[in-house]
Amino acid sequence: MISSAIINALPLLPQQKGDWGVYLLLCNNGAFYCGISNRLEIRWQAHVAGKGARYTRMYPPEQMRVVCRGIGKRIAAQCEYQLKQLTAADKACLWGLLDNFKPAQE
Questions:
Q1: How far, in Å, CA of 68 to CA of 79, rounded?
Q2: Which domains does the chain have, with CATH numbers?
Q3: pLDDT of residue 1
Q4: What is the rounded CA–CA span in Å between residue 65 and residue 45?
Q5: What is the CA radius of gyration of the chain?
Q6: From CA 33, how far away is CA 31, in angstroms rounded?
Q7: Is residue 102's pLDDT more than 90?
Q8: Calpha distance 41→54 (Å, rounded)
Q9: Cβ atoms of residues 26 and 84 within 8 Å
Q10: What is the pLDDT at residue 106?
Q11: In the list 4, 26, 29, 106, which could disulfide-bond 59, CB 3.0-4.6 Å?
């Protein structure tokens, strides 16, 4: 069951079109990392190459899932902040509802 915390963290749709997205990474320590980008594939490649956030340099990502895309930067940042406030259990629940991110090269 989806908690109200998860529902409240997600942006209301439809949004004004934008090119930003919010993503979750599952890191090799089992933790979730949340971020935003206007170039999801390039951001994924940076994390995998060890050139992303400091956290993902210490705990490399194993998988990526997109929470939402096609939104504005402000809304993406608000969503990211709210997702970071979720418990690990809520993040795991949300993770289970999302599809794996498939980079174009695969």
A1: 9
A2: 16-97 (3.40.1440)
A3: 61
A4: 13
A5: 13
A6: 7
A7: no
A8: 18
A9: no
A10: 46
A11: 29
Mean pLDDT to the nearest integer, 6-11: 72
- State the distance between the two ends of the chain, measured CA to CA, in whole angstroms: 32
Alpha-carbon gap, residue 56 to 17, rounded angstroms: 29
Structure tokens at 55: 């956290």
Strands (E), the chain: 20-27, 32-37, 61-71
18: nearest Cα among 71, 84, 58, 69: 71
What's the pTM value of the predicted model, to 2 decimals?
0.85
Nearest CA among 58, 59, 42 for reference residue 105: 42
Q: Kindly tell me the sign of the dihedral angle through the C-alpha atoms of 31, 63, 4, 20.
A: positive
Q: What SS3 class is residue 37?
A: strand
